[in-house]
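Need a sequence for this fold. Nothing fancy.
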């Protein structure tokens, strides 16, 4: 399945879920945190960003990206 990350209404990355999470971390749209014992918490996505399957993109974004 192909995923996209869309911060601030523009497509940042399209690809696997892992690739989108990594791209989101690089630009600061996704933050990773850890428990005191070193285990990782679920990534938190900033309010203006969306991570979703590509087929769920609104039509206006799909046309713009094509």
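Here you go.
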């Amino acid at each position: 399945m192909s995923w996209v990350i869309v911060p601030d209404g523009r497509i940042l990355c399209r690809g696997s879920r892992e690739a989108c999470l990594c791209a989101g971390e690089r630009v600061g749209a996704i933050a990773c945190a850890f428990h005191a014992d070193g285990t990782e918490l679920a990534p938190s996505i900033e309010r203006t960003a969306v991570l979703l399957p590509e087929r769920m993109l609104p039509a206006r974004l799909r046309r713009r990206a094509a």
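For context: The helical segments are 17-27, 59-65.
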